[in-house]
Amino acid sequence: YRALRRGYDLFDRGEVRASVQHHLRAYRLDTTFVQAAVSAAWAAWVSGDGQLADSLLRFADARRGLLNELGELDLDRLVANSAGDYDASLRLARQKARPFPDGYAPIAHASVALSANRPREAIDALRAFDPCRDWTGEIADSYWRLSFRARHSIGDHEGALQVARRGREQYPDRADMLSLEVRALAALGRT
Question: Mean pLDDT, consecutive 10-residue segments, the chain of 191 residues?
Fold first, then answer.
């Protein structure tokens, strides 16, 4: 469990490549814990290592019977994402978010909704997420970036500006939060 937790912590801090090894270590420590291999596949995919992600997907899929329902949803969603099937991925993200509205699932749901060009659904999904809760920086940072992108893409530049300013309040030293505010001001013609 500690190796898996370390992998998630690294992933959440943006050290995605390093997290892969910890997820794989968790699997090696308990070869019935296929969820660790699925988590490693996700981290590999996010880090841009499609070859490793694909290999891990096939590996985990062959051991699907050892996954619980949520593990199967994670596996199926990554398969859909890898194939560019964002409609299927969105359906699976919705399915996973229902039982876990106050965890990370709303972030994943919103991210897939934006990939599927459904920004209003992304905004709705993010309403269930509290960015001021004691999350690690990258998770809350994802909230602000996704919320900004969704509002910006529907032309709600005032809403995007409010989101950017709240993100800067939470992360005053982050250049990416400042960048969101500048983009919103530019969209409003206030540069």
Answer: 88 86 95 95 93 95 94 93 91 86 82 93 91 71 92 97 94 91 95 76
